[in-house]
Amino acid sequence: MNRKINELLGIRFYIPGYQRGYRWTEQQVEDLLNDINKFESKDDSWYCLQPLVTKKTILDINQFKTDIQDKTELQDITDALNKQIRYEVIDGQQRLTTIYLILAYLEKDTKKAESAEQTKTYSIEYETRNNSKNFLKHISVKIEDKAKGNIDFFYMHKAYKTIETFFTQKKSNEEKKSYKDKLLNNVKFIWYEIDEGENPVTVFTRLNMGKIPLTNAELIKALFLNRSNFGAGEEKNETLWLRQQEMASEWDTIEYTLQNEEFWLFLNKPGNKRPTRIDFIFDLICNRDTLKTGTGNIGTDEYRTFRYFSNYFESSSSDKSTTCWKEVKKYFRIFCEWYNDLELYHYVGFLIEQGETIQSLIDTWENRDNKPPITKGEFKSAVKEKIKEKLNNCRDLNKEYEIQGNPKTQCRPLLLLHNIQTVINQNKQMENNKYGLATFYKFPFHLYKLESWDVEHIDSYTENDLSDIKEQKEWLKCASLTVTEKELKENIKNFITEEEEDQNSENNQNTDFENLIKKIIGQDNFQNRLSDNEKNMVWNFTLLDAHTNRSYGNSIFPVKRRVIIGKDQGIRYEVGENLEVKETTGKIAFIPPVTKNVFLKYYNPNVNNLKEWTKEDAKAYKNNILETLKEFGVTDSSSDKSKNNK
Prior knowledge:
Helix content is 51%, strand content 9%. The longest helix is centred in the middle third of the chain and has 22 residues, at 237-258. By secondary structure, the chain is an alpha/beta fold. The protein is flat and about 90 Å long. It starts with a strand and ends with a helix.
């Protein structure tokens, strides 16, 4: 059976608690608008929407009186009888809501035109989202503030803005009227009404198991909010409704928190495209077999977790929803406690970044083999021991690292931990006895992960190996940013602007280039600079994002310093052929605190030379690493350790 949109007007639709909220993206809304727009309507032709699966419910008179609060909506006895009939939407909620939003916009728009025929629409009610009906009824682009903090409102408002943009940019009043007529009279839902005795939850699960958009969590939600899965003491409609409402509200709170990128990327790696992130907790419960149902018969496909919970609800006895939901909230509380504790946030975040699994950390937290569970202080100690294990390959600060391949990155955990412990120490130093320990700054793992940070040299390893004339010219252009002497700047300009075919022999060219390097740096001998071997030690390494590193390549220290400061301030420096410097607005980037300190020469109190990274700077940096990470067993095996410390 098919029903035109015109035939749905005045119907009360009801979205049960097991359904997910509205989640269509701008692209999906725009695709539907364009599809209907391109459809050529004729008297006998129609555009078919995917099935709308419903179940008719006739409300008893008491529930009917409670649900219909606004008596002015009841125009006549027919209208009253229609409103006593309600259709539970089992499948098709997303399109039904989008069509409602299109009609709502067109109805508001026609009110602006004189003598325009107004069209009432259908209504959509929600079992566990009472405010959504009212939000839809009064939706407009001007209520963006009300859409914040509620995931359903956010997506509804975003869809409505997409609809408004579509019509205001492309449609005249006449075209809008034509579109509205087509929508009402030539667009149909495939209407499927299930029998009275069928269980809507079972139908919902069967219909959606094969669809990609529904996640394990959305299927599991149908199990949680099924009336039969609540305890015997909650069989009364009012009590049951309150429990469903409470659970749905808590569900949305968890999902909304996990949608926060800072919280999510503290626990996870980038690239997770799940529309619902609460799946993360359900997967964890399944993998750890928290509910003790076994995982041997649930398969390995994408619906493995759903089958795990389905087995639990089929096999377990009384009050299954409440018992299971307690486990979900337990895991969420653990994550919140880690996130909100200054040290746990940083140490757990470090371990997860280094490949430690959430499952192993929770095993430690719960101390499953011993009772009672360990205290928070004992957990912190256990976490620090795990961190020491991660530093096994990079505790010795006198170790040299290969420039080629992966071995250089062996010290990455140490450099990351140095940044993290620096943040922790700064926060502790700001501790106020009156107000207690406050978190003034947290290391942003989400930015660190999203911007691909890696280990790079402070003093470039290959700056004297530039043999190609184009590379030499590019290097000198960058280096000119630090030059103030007029004669030296003119010599650099002459070298850069001279045609390649007019250059002297290769040997003379290289000699000229090396002389310019020495003049720029300001020394004829490099006694205070790091040797090639010393450049491959920790005291010459820092964390840099790939884009920043590429932006200055093998430039000298002061050029790198200026680029880093520019990144922090949102300024970009460009050098022209005539060495003119242009400052343009650039994208501000996150600079790890230690990286910023390195290029500001923060660790050396006797700084008098900002043109190069000297041995004294490197020793001061190294000593700070030793002092900051001493509790993690970081050492210096060099023979002159005592001298360096002195």
